[in-house]
Fold this sequence. Notes:
The chain is an all-alpha fold. The chain contains 16 helices and no strands. It has helices spanning 15-18, 25-35, 40-49, 52-74, 79-82, 86-102, 115-125, 136-144, 147-168, 171-179, 187-223, 234-239, 253-272, 281-305, 309-315, 327-337. α4 packs antiparallel against α9 (147-168) and α9 crosses α14.
Amino acid sequence: MSVPILKSAVACADFSRTVQPYLSQLNDLPQQVFQSATSLQALKEVYLNTNPLISAFAFSLFLVPIFLVVSEINKNYSQVDRVWSILPTVYNLHYVAYAHAKGLPTQRLNSLAIISARLTFNYWRKGGYQRGSEDYRWEILRKYINPPLFFIFNVVFISLAQSVLLFSVTMPTYILLLSSPIVKAGTSDIIFSQIILGSIFLAFTADQQQWDFQNAKKSYQSTAKLPPGTDFSARDLDRGFLTKGLWSFSRHPNFLAEQCVWVTLYAWSCWVTESYYNWTGIGAVAYLALFQASTLFTESITAKKYGDYKIYQQRVGKLLPSLWKGGVADMNEEKAEK
């Protein structure tokens, strides 16, 4: 059996019953795939006879040397960035496909495929998939780390840790898969899926507002005139960073919404298994930790680039809206006084 036979919802979150018995498959899987490479039917049997969590984890490890080699050859370290929005969906679709092949209910899983749409679209329109494009933060980071240490950083963090992280945030889907034959889909599943979709919509809205602002700023800087029909004033564009719309309540509303997606997926797995926590939470926690570090680094760069950003930091919450910081209006008043 590639998945355990379980009789209770609580058992679906038991690591010793749902994961440990299948860890040995990780050692045998490469050889099985190699021996079956010439036969689609044989590959299908390997796929169905392998625990879906193990095969997903194996795929994340398979990608590591690819990310590493390509990034070092091209000296471009955004290889994982290019698939950041795609891989979680690949893993979720993998669980859905496995459930279909095994005849398991998939109603609880079907809504997860849309998760990648927002990030993939936004990364594409910013030119992220153009040849040679790279996240500006890697270039800055390379100035502070010598080449040998940066290579180690590439191996351990950029290529390995990030690849495994994109697998780990979808681990709750494995629990949802296991619970499908035991716990029927109901109102709670609709609520969780709607929260995820709402978070995606919020992130898309924040991305769109940032896109509109950056295009207006670019036009204003090249022509010294406000673009026709823009909602931004010269003061807004001279400031250099967005403080309107969702960005007047949070300095990173897109980051907040993206993190909500994976925290909600984890909470969904806890609800279905009638538990306050389970082992798949490590993925959501690691994701939150990465975003905290990334946000601090990004803001340190932005604060050096834009003089008013420190005032913005004082007046607007980093992720969650702040009721006591005063907001953008208070920020503008403080700037006027100075």
